[in-house]
Design goal:
This protein has 4 helices and 12 strands, in the order E-H-H-E-E-E-E-E-H-E-E-H-E-E-E-E. By secondary structure, it is of the alpha+beta class. The radius of gyration is 18 Å and the shape is globular.
């Protein structure tokens, strides 16, 4: 099979870590988000090309397995890789990994993306011109979870968050990784995750107020980042075992 993976090497920067010198989930997601953007640029389907075509990709969900959290320390050499493996209607499916200096996969991830018309911000069917340059490859060997994240009714309300300019991406919506940044502030820092999921429901914009609600059951946190009535913009699942 033709090689369709994109990868790049990096070193975990001190500025990307928490007080335990561990890569923050926010920084981890940024590495993967950057990898998909670099891949798009390499095959000629970068953000400027899509803008001309009045299209944009938005991520609908993340599923991230952190298999070796002890390898995600400051100054560690890593490789980040990504490739698409399937598409259906307006949805595309993309895997990611982070490997250590010995090429062992220490993080494996799945993501689901939707292609939108920028005039209407509604999903549109994927055409060959949108994906042919990427190719496809076999999907990663991991247990694939449902896109929907379930939670109960015992939610603890936390301090509201005002959407600021630094939260926004080029679509003028809160960037998907920024929801992980918000979630990090709501979980004790010593509860480092080994498994993360995110489900995105609607876009928050400048001037919105995001109301966080947290549920904890044993080793699982669910952080609902929603409106005042807890209707979600995004839901983060955070498991520590």
């Amino acid at each position: 099979m033709e090689e369709v993976m994109y990868n790049f090497k990096s070193t975990i920067r001190f500025s990307e870590t928490n007080t335990y010198k561990k890569l923050t989930p926010y920084s981890l997601v940024n590495y993967m988000q950057d990898a998909s953007t670099f891949h798009s640029m390499k095959v000629g389907l970068g953000v400027d090309t899509l803008k001309e075509r009045e299209k944009v990709w938005v991520v609908n969900s993340w599923q991230i397995e952190i298999r070796k959290p002890e390898k995600l320390e400051a100054f560690s050499d890593i490789e980040i890789g990504t490739w698409p493996y399937d598409k259906k209607g307006p949805m595309a499916y993309r895997n990611f990994y982070i490997a250590d200096e010995n090429e062992e996969k220490i993080v494996c991830a799945n993501s689901i993306w939707a292609l939108l018309d920028t005039k209407t911000m509604r999903p549109i069917r994927i055409q060959d011109e949108d994906v042919a340059a990427y190719g496809t490859d076999e999907k990663l060997d991991m247990i694939y979870a449902d896109r929907k994240i379930t939670y109960g009714t015992e939610l603890q309300a936390c301090e509201p968050i005002e959407v600021q300019r630094f939260h926004l991406d080029t679509n003028n919506h809160v960037n998907n990784a920024k929801y992980f940044l918000m979630a990090e502030q709501l979980v004790p820092e010593e509860d480092y995750p080994v498994y993360l999921r995110a489900e995105y429901r609607k876009s928050a914009v400048l001037g919105d107020t995001i109301y966080p609600f947290v549920e904890k059951n044993d080793d699982r946190y669910v952080i609902v980042l929603g409106d005042k009535e807890a209707n979600p913009y995004a839901i983060i699942e955070w498991r520590i075992k």
